[in-house]
Structures are given as C-alpha cells and as structure tokens.
Amino acid sequence: MSIYITLSELDGPSEPTEMSDEVATLLAASGLLAVAPAGNGHWQITPTGKVGCIQTGDVQVEVRPKDKVGLSRLLFLLGYARDPGFRPGDVDGVEDMELLPALAESLCRHVRRALGLGPLQGYVTLEDSLYTVRGRIRISDQLASRPGMLMPLEAAFDEYTVDIAENRILLAALRRMLGVPRLGDDVRGRLRHLVAKLDGVSALRPGAALPVWQSTRLNRRYHPALRFAEIVLRNCSAEAGEGDIRVASFMVNMATVFEDFVATALTEAMAGFPGMSSAQYETYMDELEPDRPGNRVLMKVDLVHAVDAVPAMVFDAKYKAATPWGQYPNADHYQMLAYCTALRVRRAWLVYAGPGEVETRRVRFTDKEIAIFPLDLSRSPQELLERVGDLAADAWRLFCESERIAVKDVAH
C-alpha cells in the first residue's frame, strides 16, 4: 500500500506512520526530514526547514512552503533568482499536481517546444588524431606524443553538430527525470521520446559541472527549457538506494531561495536609479587593529546599493515566520543597526516573506531607521515583481529626502 504524506515546512512531528527501517533510514538521509522511531515499526516524520519531496519504496513525503505558496510560485522564485529572464509562463499549469510528476510534466512541455523545429546545432571545437589534414595541427602535442612521425596528426577543428551545451543540458534533465520511480506511463513515454530526439548528444559525466551556455538570438526558443532543465538538475536527484529501493527527491532551502530572489529582483529594480547594487556585500563591523589584522568581525549584507561608490541603502531578506502578533526577532533589528552603523547608512530595509504592512522603527538617540517590508509570496509573480519595484522606489525616495537632494524622475 502506497503512503503519501503532505506537510508544511513549519509543521511539527507527523502522526506515527508504519514503514520499514530501510525506508525510514533513506528518508532521514535525504536531509528533508527528521525521522524518529515511535514503536511497533512506526516512525514520526518532522520537516527540517527545507521544502520539497522525497519518494522511496511505497512512501512519498512532500513538504510545502509556508503561507500556501504553491509549486508554480516556488519554481518561479527558483528560476528568477538565477535568471531574471525567467518568466511566470515558464511554470504554468503545475499548481495542483504532486511535485515530482509536475516537474516531469513541465520538463516535457518545455523540451517539446524547444525541439519543435528539431535540435539546435552549433560549432564545437574538437581535438583528435587524424590521417588527413583538417583544422589546425597541434604541433606541441604532435611532437610530444609522436616525435619524428608524420601520421597520424594531432589536430584541432570545428565541427557543426548537435552535441552542444544546450542539448547536453536538456538530455541530462530528461534522463534525471526518467530515473524518478512511479511516474505515469504517459509522461515516461514522452520523456523517452524526447531523449530519442537528442540522438548524437553526449551524456554529462556524473558529478560534472553543468555546461555553460550563452543566451543568443539563435537559441532563443531553447531559453525556457534550459532554465527549467537547470532547476531540475540542481535540485532533483534520482538514484538507487539499498537493495531494490529507488530514491527520488527534489529539495530546496526556502531561506536561500527567498534571499536569492530578493537580491536578484531588487538589483533589477534598482537598476533604474543612479548607483550600483552589490549582492552579498562584504564589510567589517569593527575597526582594523594593526596588531590583530586577521581578527575582525566580517559582515555579509544581502544587498547594498551605493551612490557614487558610497553605500546609500541596505537591504536584508529574512524568510521566517512572525509571531501571532506580527512581531519578528529582536536580533534582526540589532543586525540592521550594526549594518547601518558600520556602513554609515541612515536606513536599512528588512524584507520578510509574508503578508503585512510596511513599518519603520527609529532607533533611540540616533538618526538610524529600520524599515520592515513584507513580501507576500502567495501573490502572483507579476505582483511580486511590482512589489519589489515599490520597495526600490520607496528606498530611493527616502534616501533622497534624507540627503536633501532632489528626487530625480528616473524610469524604473
């Protein structure tokens, strides 16, 4: 009998569930769940703060984000954080499905569109030993491997082929998804059909870095498929467990996803104003002491926007739950005050994941202010980006007011 368990990332231990020791061990090893014995072959499952899905044996556990953030929103945040060109339409139609089948369906849809006119081809530089002159002779390699011999020649040449980075990424994602057990026969058949269309494309070596591809006019029809394939390859795994048990999982850290999304979206929004934004901005809280140069307190700020190379605005993203009364940890405010003081910035912005209104706290006996800016992830992608645009506009306006400079009418 199959067991399907759905949890929220903020849930406590589940009701005791019967499963084998092997399956319980594999669930715990995933990092998505903490598993504790409850007696008589039953186990309690608790989310560890990550979201995703794991499927092993007859047990499947899905951990969903807080605040009813659906799968399409999660995939949008993941995609946009890595590439601002990722659009909401790239993840349409997956909201009400189980996570792993939804990933497979979406991957099929994107790759089918990408390959509609056939696989892309491009020039790839190859090196080989040849008996005819082709391309460029690698003289140093020829002398090192065959001194005094004229044939075969060590040559480098360009070949027009389907074995390019874009196709390798698509093929790797399709094969990764084919390793997921218990997918429907229909979607598994479509995955195999798409793999066959990429005949002649070489497989990526296990553990190798993803090939680098460049966005061009020629590969534009591939863009949505490539972005989605990279989400699959970076976050999804499918491998053999103990004995005949297979394990498939998709797991992300929502705190990291949210921080990356805010940094990327804010950088895009702030590009319409003077200055430059820097993500993961490094600075020190304390002064340099000559006798202890290596013993300083390092700070990494999620995003700093500088004007004329001087820090002007500070932003920090926090993916955490407020108390039932809408309060957030005091330590977050202490952290923002440290940023403001060390960077000589008047105002810091705390961007929280959740609904609510903007609040500003003035720090006693200082000119420092800490603004709390909620970002409701249950909103549509377009509304999220508009909300981040509002944050950028508010931050710029208040900076201009504090510096007593004219607010320029800059498009953003």
Question: Could you characterize the architecture of this molecule?
Answer:
The chain has 412 residues and is of the alpha+beta class. The protein contains ten helices and 17 strands. Helix 2 packs across helix 8, helix 3 packs antiparallel against helix 5 and helix 3 runs antiparallel to helix 7. 33% of the residues lie in helices and 27% in strands. The longest helix has 23 residues. Among the domains are: 69 residues, no CATH class; 40 residues, no CATH class; 149 residues, Trna Endonuclease, Chain: A, domain 1, CATH 3.40.1350.10. The termini are far apart. The strands form four sheets. Strands 12-13-14-15-17-16 form a six-stranded mixed beta sheet, with helices on both faces. A five-stranded mixed beta sheet has the order 1-6-5-11-10. Strands 2-4-3 form a three-stranded antiparallel beta sheet, covered by helices on one side. The relative contact order is 0.11.
The CATH level-2 architecture of the domain at 255-403 is identified as: 3-Layer(aba) Sandwich
Rounded to the nearest angstrom, the distance between the terminal CA atoms is 55 Å
Q: What is the CATH top level name of the domain at 255-403?
A: Alpha Beta
Computed structural class: alpha+beta
Mean pLDDT score = 86
Estimate percent helicity.
25-40%
Please give the count of helices. 10
CATH fold topology of the domain at 255-403: Trna Endonuclease, Chain: A, domain 1
List keywords for this structure.
412 residues, alpha+beta, Trna Endonuclease, Chain: A, domain 1, 6-stranded mixed beta sheet, 33% helix
